[in-house]
Amino acid sequence: MSPYDQARDELFQHVMRCGVIGSAPEHQTEWFDETMKFLADRYHELSKKEIGDLRVLGERFAAPTVMPEDGPPAEPAADATPQQPGEGAESGELDTVNAA
Fold this sequence. Notes:
Blueprint: H1 3-18, H2 25-42, H3 48-62
Helix pairs in contact: 1-3, 2-3
């Protein structure tokens, strides 16, 4: 495993352990500033670009999931069977699934 891969894995572990996910943006910024200094010292063989790339990955990892405005996509009913196009509906009609 390369030093970059090791640093990335360590960063993700720190994010999960330290409660960064869900914290205020200003706290995340401060936490990432300190953590990236630590990782740069610990993994001195990494370039500034690689440290910057790690920060971007870490910030994306810690960012909340963005849901569409209308909520998560609906899942098909458990008893629904896939239909072939045009099967069970007249041309121009939408197929519907009756949920139990």
